[in-house]
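pinging the channel bc i need a second pair of eyes. not urgent but kinda urgent?? the chain im working w is below, pasted from the shared doc
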Amino acid sequence: MKGFVRLIAGAALAAASFASLGTTGALAQQKEWKEIRIGTEGAYPPFNNLNAKKELEGFEIDYANMLCEKMKVKCTWVVQDWDGIIPALLANKYDIIIAGMNATDERKKRVDFTSVYTKTPIWAISAKGASTDISPAALKGKAVGTQGATIHANFLEKYYKDSNIRLYPTQEEANLDLLNGRLDYIIADSLALQDFLDGKGKDCCQKAGEVTRDPAIHGPGVGGAVRKEDTALKEMWSKAIAESLADGSYKKIQNKWFKIDLM
């Protein structure tokens, strides 16, 4: 009987050792990121956008490519509609989201985030000559739009319940409705709206005001989103982000796309 017990104990110990080795091996393998697939929307200029040649361009595209070089990994891009961008990450369609995604508490229930790499003001814009009072009371009954499934949509739904809230698949579609008089105001990221005001909206539209951030909705800023189990990947990107801020490579790309500091 004792021999039988010892046999079972030995088998259990061997199984435990094997499992431990397997776990250690899996963790080691997790750290060996040589190729990384990056998901982005491709419809959020000047951060990420598909140009006329259907090529990705923008600050985030240049910045992420530079980080990939810094990490010495091969990176490929995958374009994904915003509504499905987190589900596609969780379904292993790509490994990280670089798409102007704010690291909110709500999103952290599903994914983890790298260090923040942009933190910018939030604006309201309108047709030229419209009131610059953008308080909820002032915009009661007004058509106010933004991209759906974003922090800006959540902000409108919380604070502007008496407005006619209109949500769009992309920010560009919201911008076009303001341009064509179908919206009274838009609330969104200042740099995305500035890009519109400098381009298609320069003759029609104006900055109406800056929105006070709600930390519970807006979060600390924009980071890269990864699956919760991919801790090594998150640490790699966070380290590369920190290095880029320290060595000036971040600022070089920032200055190519923007006239203000993003951090």
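so The first helix runs from residue 2 to 31. and Residues 114 and 237 are 6 Å apart (CA to CA). — does that match what u expected or am i reading it wrong
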